[in-house]
Amino acid sequence: MASITKLTGFPEWLPAERIVEQYLLDTLRRVFELHGFCSIETRSVEPVDFLLRKGEIDKEVYGVRRLQGGESDKDALALHFDLTVPFARYVLQNAGKLDFPFRRYQIQKSWRGERPQQGRYREFVQADIDIIDRAELAPHFESELVLVIADVFAALDIGVAQMHINNRKLCEGFYRGIGIEHCAPVFGAIDKLDKIGGTKVHEILRTAGLSQQQADQCLALASICTPDDSFAEQVRALGVTHPLLEEGLAQLLAVIRAAHAAAPGFAVADLKIARGLDYYTGTVYETTLVGHEELGSVCSGGRYDELAADGKVSYPGVGLSIGVSRLLSRLLAQGIVRASRSVPTAVLVAVLNEQHREASNAAARLLRGRQIATEVSPNAAKFGNQIKYADRRGIPYVWFVGDDGQHEVKDIRSGEQLAVDVQTWQPPTRDQYPQIVKEETP
Amino acid sequence: MASITKLTGFPEWLPAERIVEQYLLDTLRRVFELHGFCSIETRSVEPVDFLLRKGEIDKEVYGVRRLQGGESDKDALALHFDLTVPFARYVLQNAGKLDFPFRRYQIQKSWRGERPQQGRYREFVQADIDIIDRAELAPHFESELVLVIADVFAALDIGVAQMHINNRKLCEGFYRGIGIEHCAPVFGAIDKLDKIGGTKVHEILRTAGLSQQQADQCLALASICTPDDSFAEQVRALGVTHPLLEEGLAQLLAVIRAAHAAAPGFAVADLKIARGLDYYTGTVYETTLVGHEELGSVCSGGRYDELAADGKVSYPGVGLSIGVSRLLSRLLAQGIVRASRSVPTAVLVAVLNEQHREASNAAARLLRGRQIATEVSPNAAKFGNQIKYADRRGIPYVWFVGDDGQHEVKDIRSGEQLAVDVQTWQPPTRDQYPQIVKEETP
Questions:
Q1: B151 to chain A: which residues are within 8 Å by CB?
Q2: How far are the Cα atoms of A270, B217, B301 from residue B276, in angstroms, in the given order?
Q3: Is B326 touching A (CB cutoff 8 A)?
Q4: Which residue from B minimizes the CA distance to A355?
Q5: B-contacting residues in A 372-391 (Cβ below 8 Å)
Q6: Nearest-CA residue of chain A relative to B33?
Q7: What is the CA radius of gyration of chain B?
Q8: What is the pLDDT of residues B337-387, one digit of tens each?
Q9: ipTM of this predicted structure
Q10: In this complex, is the C-beta atom of B320 within 8 Å of any C-beta atom belonging to chain A?
Q11: Which end of chain A is more exposed for a tag (fewer CB within 10 A), N or C?
C-alpha cells in the first residue's frame, strides 16, 4: 500500500530507540532547568511573510493551508524552520509579561524541505537555549552558555564534545583592519573552509576582489585554533589593528578564560568558525563530537543584537541550538547507546487463569503504588509462555500470585525465584527503569 | 506589526503556565509508564490520501507543501488531525519489529482547521494510549484502560473525573432487535442528545424513518445511566432481545464490574454515549470533569477492530485520548491550578561585584551538582535589587558568597538569613522544584 510507505526525511523511532531519545530530552531538560532556564513552546506555524522577512527562503519552508480553506495569501502560514525566529516573535508578543533577562529553553520539532541526507531531516527535534535582555545584554552571558553546554555533554555521557568558539567582531575588525569593506562574502567563504579547503577558499576570496595578501591574511587568521588564550598573541602577531578587532579579542578572551576555568578542555578558540547566518554579531559557537567530526556541528549558535526588535526597543540575546535528531540518529546508527529494554515495564504479573486475573491486577496496583512499572500478563497461557512474553521485551521480573495468596518473584535473567512480600518488595534502581547502555569505546 | 499578532486557535503559554502543562504531561507519562505503555511519536505529516481515506474530510485537514516545491498531487502531505490514524499506520509499517499485544502512549500535537472556540484549538496536544494486538484482542483490555485513566485523574489531582461507558454492540443489538436496519443515523442522533435534547432527537429519529415506538425505545435505552451493574436489568426491562445485544451487555457488565472493584465511583454505565466515529466496534468511553461538564469530554475513545489492517492481518485495538490542551486551558482560565513560581530556579546566587562573579559561579556549580536549580545574578547591583530579581520570579532563596568565602542563604519570604555550608545545604523538596498549587474548591 503506497500510502503507508516511509517518507524520506521524516524519522520515526521504534520503542527502544524512543527510550534513548527520551533519555536525551530528559537530560537536556534537567540540565537546562538546573541552570534556571524556563520551558516554553511556540506554535508550529508562523505567517509566511514573517518567516521569510529575514530572507531565509533558502531554508525551503513548508507552507500550511486548510485543504478546504479560502484564506487569502496574507493569511498564509508556514511551519517554522528553527526555534529562534519564533522565539524572537514570542518575546516581542509577550514582552510586557516576561521578566528580563529572560532565560528560556525550547525543545520542539522544526521542518525544512531540504533534500534529506545522512543526519539531515525534514522534520527534526531541536533543543534551544537563549538568554535575551531588553536594550543591552551583559557580556558574561556569552561565557555562561558555554558552561551550560559543557554540563549538558557531561550529563549526556555519550563521548567527548568540544566547542569551537569565535567572535564575529574579532574577524570583522580584522577584515576591516586589512582594508576589506564588504565582510559578508568573506564570512561566507571562510565558513566553507572545512568543506572545500584553503586553496578553494583563497580562490573565492580573490574572485570576491581581495588582493593576494588580503586573502592570505584571512586564511592566516582562520588557521588560528588554540585550547587556551594563546590565540590572542597569534592574532596580534599578524600585525593588524582595528578597534572592533580589539573589542572582539577581549570578548573572546573572556569567554575562553571562563570556559577554561570551569570546564577545562571543553572549549577551543577556533577563528575559522563563521556561522553562515547574518544575525550573529559577537560570539559564535559550534560543537563537534570528538571522533564524529564528519557529523558536523551538533550544537551551534551565537550572540545576536537585532533579531527581536519592535521599533522602540531591541532585545539582544545569545543562544545555542542542539540538533537532537541528528545526534540521536548517529548514536543509534553506530550503536553508541541503546536502551536496556524496549518497554518501561519492570515487572510482569503472571495470570494463573482468567478467574484469578483480579488477584494479579491487585498485586500490580500495589507495585505501581511504589513506582514500579508493572503489566499484567495479557493471557493465562502456560507460565513458560508468560515468561517468554517478558523475555522478548526485556522485562526483568515475573511475579506469581499463588492460589494460596503467596507471592513469588522470578528474576528471569538468573532464573532465581523467591517468596516475597508484595507490600515491600523493591527492585534495584537499575532494574526499576530502562537503563541507557553505553558501548565501551575500543 | 501585523506579522506578530496572535493566531486564533494556536495557543501559546507563558512560562508559569507552561510549568502547569509540564506537570500534566509528566504526570500522564509517569502513569502510562507505570502501566507498561511504551512511548512513541509519529511524524507530523501523512500523505493526504491516507488521512482522507476514512472519509474524515470534515476534520478540516491542513495540507503541507514546500513553498518552492514542484511535488505532484500524489506526494501531497497534510498535518495529522489525531494520533490514532498515524498510530495505525505506524503499527502496519513496523508490525515485524513490534511485540504484540503492543501497548503504546503518544503525546503529541495535532492540527485541525476547524473554527476555534472556547477550549477548541487548531493546534492542540493530545495524549493517547492504545493497546493493539494481532488478529484478536482480549476483552479484559477494555476494562484495563478504564483503570489506567482512573489512575491518571487520581494522580493529576485536579478534581473529580467520571468516565461514561457504553458498548456499541449493546446499542446496535438493541436497535436491530426492534427492527432498525440502518443504525448509523441512530448513533448520530443519540450522539447529539446532550446538546439538543430528547424532543429534537426524537424528531430526527422519526425523520430517519423510525416509528414512534422505535424512537421511544431508542430514547428509553439512551436514558439508562447507572453507577453499577444495575443498567443490565433496566435494559432487559425494555423487553428487547438480540444476540448482539447480549454480547454487548456481557462486555459492558465486565467493564463496569472491573472498574467498580478497582476504582469505585469512577465509571458509570451511560447508554447514551455513542461516539460519532464509525470505527468503534465495542466499548466506547467519554470522561467529564465533575463541575465542568460543559467543557465536554476530556478523555474519549473506544474499541476498534478494523482501523489497522493490511489485507492479510487485522490489528484490533482499544484506545483513549486525553485532550491536554483543552484541559489545560480550562485549569488555567479558572485558576484551578497554578505554578508556585515562573522559573525552575530555587536559588539565586548574588554577585558582590563583577570581579567576584567567578566565586558566585563556583557556588552555583556546587548547588547544581546536588540537583538544586541555580542562577547567578545577571548583575552586581545593590543586593536589594538582586533580591527583587529573585522575588519577581518567585525564586525562594538568595545566596551570598562573602568576601571572606563565608556562605549565607536568605529565605526571601521569611527574611531569615543563615550562615550555611555550600557543600551540604539542601532546600526542602517543596522549594527545590516549582510546585503545582491547587485552589481550594469552595
A1: 368
A2: 61, 20, 10
A3: no
A4: B140
A5: 372-376, 378-379, 389
A6: A344
A7: 27
A8: 999 999 999 999 999 999 999 999 999 999 999 999 999 999 999 999 999
A9: 0.95
A10: no
A11: C
pTM of the model: 0.95
Judged by CB atoms closer than 8 Å, whether chains meet at A373 and B34 is answered as yes
Q: Which residues of A touch B44 (CB under 8 A)?
A: 10, 44, 109, 111, 123
Secondary structure E strands in A362-402: 374-376, 397-401
**Among A69, A373, A379, beta carbon nearest to B33:** A373
Task: Write out pLDDT tens, residues A19-53.
Answer: 999 999 999 999 999 999 999 999 999 998 888 87
Q: B98 vs A14: CB contact, 8 Å cut-off?
A: yes
